[in-house]
Amino acid sequence: MISELRQLVEESHHKSITDIFMEIFSRIKKDSDLYNTIASENDDSTFPARILTLCYKEMNLSLESQFPKMSKAKREWLFYFMANGCSGILGHWISTGMNEDVTEMSEFIGELSNKVLS
């Protein structure tokens, strides 16, 4: 399951944040029973964060090109700031039954991310 999400992220080189999250949310929703079991019954509160960590390599390349004068340490801080926020949204969405539409969720994360990066 994590390997499927990793492959999905690795194949998203030139996609927007919204599109990447659209794929992540769609995959999780498709296999909602499995994800609910992992995230709740096993009390794995780190699961959403582990999903977002998969995005580090791709996102770091993007941040490096967008902020070439920013130190590597600050780019890492920026990534983890954004990843933890997205992880919180993703975890809440999973734990509350995945009721919101994947498009709405993905667009919301894309809008927030774009504001942080502007």
Mean pLDDT: 81
Task: Report Rg.
Answer: 14 Å
What is the CATH architecture annotation? Orthogonal Bundle
Tally of helical segments? 7
Poorly predicted regions: none
Number of strands: 0
Strand content: under 5%
* Helix/sheet category: mainly alpha
Q: What do we call the CATH topology?
A: Tetracycline Repressor, domain 2
Distance between the termini: 33 Å
How many strands, which pairing sense, and closed or not: the largest β-sheet? none
- CATH uppermost class: Mainly Alpha
Portion in helices: over 70%
Characterize the overall form: globular
Helix/strand order: HHHHHHH
Please summarize what this structure is.
This protein is mostly helical and 118 residues long. It has helices spanning 2-10, 17-30, 32-41, 47-53, 56-66, 72-95, 102-117.
Structure description:
This protein is mainly alpha-helical and 118 residues long. It has one domain: Tetracycline Repressor, domain 2 (Orthogonal Bundle). Helix content is 77%, strand content 0%. It contains seven helices and no strands. The longest helix is centred in the last third of the chain and has 24 residues. The relative contact order is 0.16. The mean pLDDT is 81.
Layout of helices and strands, plus pairs?
Blueprint: H1 2-10, H2 17-30, H3 32-41, H4 47-53, H5 56-66, H6 72-95, H7 102-117
Helix pairs in contact: 2-3, 2-7, 4-6, 5-6
What labels would you give this structure?
118 residues, mainly alpha, Tetracycline Repressor, domain 2, globular
